[in-house]
Amino acid sequence: MTKPIIEVKDLAKNFGDNQVLKNISEQVNPGQVIVVIGPSGGGKSTFLRCLNLLETPTSGEVDFDGQNLTTLDTKKVNTLREQMGMVFQNFNLFPNMTVLENIKLAPMKVKNVSDADATKRAHELLQQVNLDDHADAFPSSLSGGQAQRVAIARALAMDPKVMLFDEPTSALDPEMVGEVLNVMQDLAQQGMTMVVVTHEMGFAKSVADRVWFMADGYIQENNTPEEFFSNPQTERAQDFLSKILM
Amino acid sequence: MKNKLIMAIALVMALVAGWTATTTTAQAATDDSLAQVQKSGKLVMGTSPDYPPYEFQATVHGKSQVVGMDVAVGKKIAKDLGVKLVVKSMSFDSLLVALQTGKVDMVISGMNPTPARRKNVDFTHTYYQGGYSIVINKSDKGIYKDKDSFVGKTIGAQTGSTMYTESKKQTSGTTVKGMTSVSDLILGLQSHKLQGVAMEKPSAQAYVANNKELAMIPSKFNLSASDTSASVAFAKGSTSLVAAANKSVDQIRKQNLVNKDYLPAAGKYLKTNTVNTSMLHYWKAFLKGIEYTLIITVCSVFFGFILGVLLSLARMAQGGVFATALRWLATAYVEFIRGTPMMVQVMFVYFGLGLIVNLPALTSGIIAISLNSGAYIAEYIRGGINSVDKGQTEAARSLGMTKGYTLRYVVLPQALKNIWPSLGNEFITLIKDSSIVSIIGVSELIFQSNIVRSDTYRGVAPIAVIMVLYFIMTFTASRILNHFERKMQHD
Ligand SMILES: Nc1ncnc2c1ncn2[C@@H]1O[C@H](COP(=O)(O)OP(=O)(O)OP(=O)(O)O)[C@@H](O)[C@H]1O
Ligand SMILES: [Mg+2]
């Protein structure tokens, strides 16, 4: 059996009195694509942000590559964080930089990659997401779909071992959802380990290895997509699916 | 203006009182004032050069310098001591503070050795016995005869001067208005805000001789000798220096040097000075003013910006006792600076810090304005940083960038763009507000215009000139800033 790349043990997170995550224990194996679905406010974003410590867990452990992130010092956390790329609902591209500069910034500043190497790698990634002709554009001139593909390329530029996606298509016009999902699907096929929070059930069905259903601060159900969608185990999941499939 | 200044002086005096008290008593115990001056080889004289013929600015061989009978007195004292005389200009109100804080070694500025002043400084014997006159508009000749003719009218006198106190005391039914500079008073007279201006007789003579529209009348003030005599002031307890200066002063009296040599010489400067009173003739003085105004503004915005960044970061520090302390300190600093007048800060840096390190006026001015501007810029930057979407920080951190890199490469550039208009406003405000440092004698534009005004006996023209000059500077600056603002707009 392979060693899990991410292992979460008894993870809990409170915001004041509001207990958002309640003792979650799950694991992600290398190469797996996990799709996290669930009702709004169920704690999906918070869970994802706890994985790369953008949010500090209240208790429990997050092990990445065999190391417990919650006990590491800030410097080590920074190094491990660069191995987990993250893509946000609102892209969060740096508006004062061109597409190329957005992608080059972190490799050059964090990994001390030379300008020439960073530029070369950035162009490769832009080709991968079909946007090389926009290298010198500023983010404000891009469509939502283009911006999100640039954001994916930017995260990939750090050569992460895992990619975290938090509703990457929720802010997009419907006709642009496909181009982003295609890029993600390609990535999955190349063997990237991915944790994806999404409402795109089609993507979950065709790409996910496992579906985690999350509500009320728990992972209520961890199943294969086939099983989850045809035969949900918990009442909570049945309820959720009946609502969104209507 | 006057009230602000007096308040400022009071505050600075109170703040430095502790130090001065200790330093002066120390001096009294072991007086080495004379030895110190001889050791340094120079004697620094403080004066307010807008009081011809006592002291005023004149263009000598193309260069503007302070001349007048007081300067001749100063030269004589320095020569007798075998040292070089250095003349430092500042406003009359600042002179005694400068003396007490060691900015100058002595003050010669037509100053009367009144009992109140004697409490704080030591005076030499009298080098000149004057009297008061009142300058009026020539058209009013016959209406006013002496101080008692001004019932229901307004007369003016220089703030902080003996004339001012005595005019208040010895008139009834007359409003007495104080202004810092005599040129302003004359302007007030000519624009009929004032009906008379009380000043020392030699000054009155100089003004009347140089301005055909003015006349003078005797004041008929009832005055003690100390109110009409002029003496040299030294720091309290500098007995040896006073004794040495007294030898020179006694000679001046005995040989009647003031009336025989000094006053006629000063009169000649006055004549050459007023030959050409066109503003163009003084372009060099104005240019120097512009130069200093710009130096002060640019340096202050530069250092203020650095300080502002540090302060804003300190105000946002998080985690640990140290961060809390830092945050508290930065907040206290910003609140304190924003809650006190810039004028007081300028005087505090020049006179107050001057007790510890002897800073030149220009440096003090730049330090004070940078410290002031830093507090305001810190608030702009804090607002700018808060206005940057949190998602930007999260994206940068998720890429493995440290807090510092995130701030430097992602947040600050965007914050800067957001606050650029506010920073630009701060810069333009500083072009105008830097004029405050004129009170400590920095030759920026206002200071230079005052010199031109007392040089030419023309009240309005120099003001009109600097108004236009200020406008040209601020307008050009705002054009340049707009240009950069447009360049930064790509999103
Ligand atoms: N920084 C925060 N401070 C306080 N409460 C928070 C914070 N972030 C999230 N919460 C709360 O935690 C709960 C879970 O939020 P979270 O964003 O993780 O849910 P979600 O499942 O991602 O929902 P959505 O589908 O709307 O994105 C919500 O009640 C939210 O109000
Ligand atoms: Mg969410």
From TrEMBL, chain A:
Give any GO molecular function from the UniProt entry.
ATP binding
The record's Gene3D superfamilies line, in alphabetical order, gives:
P-loop containing nucleotide triphosphate hydrolases
Query: Where found in the cell?
Result: Cell membrane
The similarity comment for this entry is: Belongs to the ABC transporter superfamily.
Its protein name is Amino acid ABC transporter ATP-binding protein
User: SUPFAM superfamilies, alphabetically?
Assistant: P-loop containing nucleoside triphosphate hydrolases (SSF52540)
Q: What is the lineage of its organism?
A: Bacteria, Bacillati, Bacillota, Bacilli, Lactobacillales
Arranged from A to Z, the UniProt key words for this protein are:
Amino-acid transport, ATP-binding, Cell membrane, Membrane, Nucleotide-binding, Transport
UniProt domain ABC transporter: residue ranges: 6-241
| Membrane topology annotation | Peripheral membrane protein
- Which Pfam families does this one have? ABC_tran
Domain of life per record: Bacteria
The question of whether Acetylation is a record keyword is answered with no
UniProt keyword Cell membrane present:
yes
Name the PANTHER family for this protein. Answer: AMINO ACID IMPORT ATP-BINDING PROTEIN (PTHR43166), GLUTAMATE_ASPARTATE IMPORT ATP-BINDING PROTEIN GLTL (PTHR43166:SF9)
